[in-house]
Amino acid sequence: MQKIAIITDSCADIPQELIQKYGIHVLPLIIRTADGREYRDGVDITAAQVYELLKTEIPKTSLPSSDDALALFQRLRDEGYTHAIAIMLSSGLSGTANMMRIVAQQVPELEVAVFDSLSGSIGCGINALEAAAAVERGESFTAITARIPGMLENTHVFFSVDTLEYLMKGGRIGKITALAGTVLNIKPIVSFMPDGQLGSVEKVRGEKLLKEHLCNQVKKYVTPGCRYNLLVADGGNPEGGAQLQEMLGSMFPNYEKYIYVNMDATLSCYIGPGVLGAGIQILD
Question: What is the value of pTM for the model shown?
Fold first, then answer.
C-alpha cells in the first residue's frame, strides 16, 4: 500500500493550521545577516523580524540545507512512506527544486517526484495543498503526479510592491527606475513569468486603485462556470490584505477554497513590507 508524503518549502506560505491538517512537510530556506548569523525561515526568524532588519541591511538568502533535505527523506523512509511529492519555490528565484532532485537520489527506497512550481508564496502553496488533499482522498502517486503540471500551469498570482526601495537595494532593479517609482507613487504589479522569474505586468499610480487592479488581473482567468480556488497574501499589510480579501471574495464568490496567507521571511528580504498578493487556481 502506498504511503505518500507532501513536501514544500517555507516560501509556500501555507498557514500552520493547514500544514498540521494535511501533515505537509516544510523545509525552511536560510537567511543570513551581516553579522554572520544564520536563521531558518519561519523557524528561527519571522517576516516581522526581517522588516526590522531591513531598516539597516538587506539579509542574504539561500536554499534549504541539503543535510536537512536528506534527513527529511530518510525520516520519511523510516516512518514507512513509500513515495513523496515535493513542490518547491520557482527555479527562477532559487535552486531548491534542483537540490531536492539531487538529494532524493541518496534515498532510493523512497520514490520521489520533485516539481518546480515556477511560482512562490500562495502560487506554490496552493498546489502543495491540492496535492495533500488528493493524498487524503486516497488518490495514487501516479494519478496525483500526472495532474500536478496542469495544476501549476493553471495557477496565476500577482503581487504589488509598496516601495521599490528594497528591490533596488537587493539589486533587482536600477536606481533610476526606483527613483521614478518613488517620485510618481507608482505601485508595480508583478507576476511569475513562464521561466519562473518575476516580471512586471502592470503599473498602478497610488494605493487607491491597487486592490482593484489586482482583482482585475485575477478576473482575466475566470470564465463562466469554471471551478477555482482564490488566494490572497499580505506582507506586513494586514489592513490592506483584509480589504483585498473582501473585495476579491465579493467579485468571485463561487470559490472552492479561499486561502489567506502571511508572506514568509525569505521573500520579505527582497520586497520589504506593505506587499499585497492576489491569485487564482483554475480547477477545470
Answer: 0.91
